[in-house]
Amino acid sequence: MLTAMSSGGRIGHDAPYMPRGCDMRWFSSEEICEILARFEKVVIVGDSMMRHVIGSLNVLIRKDLGYGAVTDWNFSPEERSLSCPVDTVDVMSKYSLFPPFPSQWLNFYWVVEQMIRFPIAPEELSRLRDLLPSSKPLRPYAFIFGHGLWNDLDLQATLDWLDLILDITISSAPWLQTDYTSSNSVHSISNLASKRSRKGAQASKSVSWPGKRHNGFWPRLFLTPNAAGKEKPDEWLVSQGNKALTIFEESVKEEAGRRGVEHLGTYNMSIQSNKFDGVHVDLKGNLIKAMMVLNWLNMLEVEKF
Fold first, then answer.
1. What is the rounded average pLDDT of the residues 49-71?
2. What is the pLDDT of residues 179-236, one digit of tens each?
3. Is 111 helix (H, G, I), strand (E, B) or coil?
4. pLDDT for position 63
5. Cis before residue 119, ω within 30 degrees of 0?
6. To 5 degrees, how large is the angle CA 239–CA 241–CA 245?
7. Using alpha carbons only, how large is the chain's radius of gyration in Å?
8. How big is the CA angle at 200 (ends 195 and 204), to the nearest 5 degrees?
9. Which ranges constitute the DSSP H helices of the chain?
10. CA 248 to centroid of chain Cα atoms
């Protein structure tokens, strides 16, 4: 499914997107709530492109194209009170990006963590540690990553960013691996995360990755940036143009796979889509991204947790 979604495309500018070789389901709001309710938390880590994905998830759950993705600070007090007329579940976020969304019968959370560049700020790493429980929850966690543009599509910087997040995650939540009862293993991983955090970009050159460490149920997905549009400033057309974006997507797919992280490419989906600033796709494009993520979440075998 990820291959089909990554390699699909459009026949003409802003034409409907089609996966290649199989169909992608377009879920109803009720089905989306049921999918998300399978997880204790869905943790989304990344930059503005990932923020737009969760904004689109809000649109789909709220059934509100007008206000569903509007960030919290754009709501007046009157609009905020009108947007959620029923019982609510909080969307947890550093910035409280979105108001609570309606849910009369479910209890789930997603978490947005802004980590846009490497080296990662210490306070951002601290927030990540704080949201991960040390004991196994009743339902699994799913992790969705997005990174690249803020480090100018520097592959090594992206891998350092990803490796540090994975190290922090497994050291804070050792239940993500089947042999988490091994204190020596947890201690070793914790030391590795501390070393990477202290040394920054040089750490990955001197510290080896201790195996994939994904024997437990640890679903992880990496979204690479979408294609650039004609409005992208000229000074970025070499380092962040479509040639660089294509090479970056292919390289991240290979390197993420070595780490047990699945990959979803968005270049083909977005090359003929509207981009309001030459960087970010419009609401239609982001709704497709969100539905891609939901198709991935839906196919995860949560019963293995």
1. 82
2. 444 344 444 445 555 555 555 545 444 344 444 444 579 999 999 999 999 999 999 9
3. strand
4. 84
5. yes
6. 90
7. 19
8. 70
9. 2-7, 29-36, 48-62, 77-83, 122-130, 155-172, 183-199, 203-206, 242-258, 267-270, 283-299
10. 17
Q: List the one residue out of 213, 214, 219 whose CA is nearest residue 302.
A: 219
The length of the chain, given as a count of residues: 305
CA distances (Å), origin 255, targets 8, 126, 183 = 22, 26, 28
Query: Distance (Å, rounded) from C-alpha 214 to C-alpha 203?
Result: 21
Query: Which amino acid, residue 38?
Result: R
Q: What tokens were used for 169?
A: 């995650």
Which uninterrupted H or E stretch holds 101? strand 101-102
Query: What contacts 287, CB < 8 A, 6 or more positions away?
Result: 56, 59, 60
Confidence check: pLDDT of 146 > 70: yes
DSSP alpha helix (H) spans, 200-300: 203-206, 242-258, 267-270, 283-299
> At residue 277, does pLDDT exceed 80?
yes
